[in-house]
Input
Amino acid sequence: MNEKKIIAIKWQVPIPSVPSNTWSLYKTYRGGIDWRYRSSGSGGYGYMSQWTQSTAQSGGINAAPTGFIDGQHLWVFGAASDHPTYMSNAIINTAQSYTSAFSITMDRSWDATQSSVNVTVTIKATAPFTAVGNLMFRNVMVERLIQFSVQPGTNGEKDFNDAAIASFPSTTSGTVVTGMGTALPSSWTLGQTQTFTMNCPLPSYVRNKTQVAFVGFIQDDGNHKVAQAVRSTQQSLDANDAKAIALRSGDFSCPGQFTPTLDIQNYGTTQITSMTITPYVDGVAGSPTTWNGTLDNGAMTSVTLNPISTGVAGGHKLVCTITSVSGGDMNTTNNSATGGVFIGTGSHGVAVAEGFTASAFPPASWGLINSGNDNTWVKTTAAGGYGNSAESAMIDLFSGATAGDKDELYLPVMNLTGGNAPSLLFDLAYAQRTSASNDKLEVLVSGNCGSSWTPVFSQSGSGLATAQPTGISYTPNPNSDWVTMQVDLTGMNLSSVLVKFVSTADGNGNNIFLDNINLSQSSPTGLQANQNNALSAVVYPNPSAGNVTLKLGTTKSQDVVISVVNILGQQLITRNANIPAGSSDTSIDMTSLPAGVYSVVIEAGNQKVVKKVTLTR
Output
């Protein structure tokens, strides 16, 4: 939209229906919105719906989106219909070419408590003017940008611009708005002026005070035409506003203490010299940290908190809240940040064989990190691996998952010392929402208490998919959608090994299912999937200068697909082969690839084996 020539107001309407699953822009200001567009016979302003000049009129807005310019239909200025698709720059230029008989200035200032805004309006006639009907000045409070973490409706839209949230002055009868605006003289002479001031309290549902702006306009109620409009834009808060930007807790901690860090920004105009940060672990307050220093407007600082101790194994929710800001804090809605930490206390001495059939989730000694505080890994009874049970672990990336959001599912700390190389097997089911969906699943392993992580499995988009795109919320078919992944953990024969599954949401993705997760040094136990055509693989030499040999083992002759994938999940080499029963060798030429770590993926039926290989030069 050409903001140099047009000033926007977005009036939310209940079309096609009123959102109910989250906070609704329409419901917060329903009285004013209804009055603005409903027919005058029902007590409203009386905008008539008429898509084109030849379409019969009907009362109120009966389709969304609908657009008007200067209170008139878009087709008055040459558009094909009132749909905003037709609001081109040419249409805007035509509307803007008309000469106005008025100029408007509108000045604003916060009150002492920043709970209301005083707006002073000065109107001057730049030409003689006579209205057809009552001439009104209307002042609409908007939020320039409203952002939802979860879509409030059903079309996926999360960001809203210039949404109307209040009008001043307004008259009401109970909860029904009966009028809005300040009456002006119907006739004006050249040079005539009028000045007035109005107090505009902020509604309780304002999401961000720094996004509050005002749009004022002169409107002739006789023909709905807008004679002039002006915007008084956002204004920063005059007092302190400490904002919690990000909480970093390290995700994993060995037994004992962990030390989180909170990034803080001064969103106000006054220098901040002190504040207190209090951590809450699972809702229980910890030792507060007092910060003293100098934090100017717009500046950021990272505060290392006092060490936190917890001996309870598993995942924990961590919230850090800012209080006691020097000079006060006029906006406390942004004073908290949320994170998580997984505490490991000792190592298991037996293999993991988890089918998620027990009632507790996550299982005992497992961990869950939901740093985005939204959809995360849960136990579902909608599907189990290969239909051998009704339970599995699932993350809903279809309903309102934020793009880039990561969720982590930790296995218990494992003791994998011994002669055999550890191996991880798990059953997987996933379908993209569309062919462009790019959800990601990774497996990372650490042998040093989470100080560093090594990726051992990474698939995304179509490479992760085990079924065709669905377009709807995905539930796997037990007979065709599940595959069994085998991930080599060579080099992880250590006393304290941590493995985690990490999902990354695309924002337009679909559900991921995991089941029958097995981790041990020998052939994993507890698998519920049919393993009659068991597949095994060994890659050597490893590290390699580029030419590697793949030793494959299978219980029967079958077709396989062999791929080489980089750490970004990109497929670099792909070929098909038929391998006989027993053991056989095949070579892979990787000399054209740069040095680095790659995955060799072998797929046969419903099995995938993933082997890591390091190329050196």
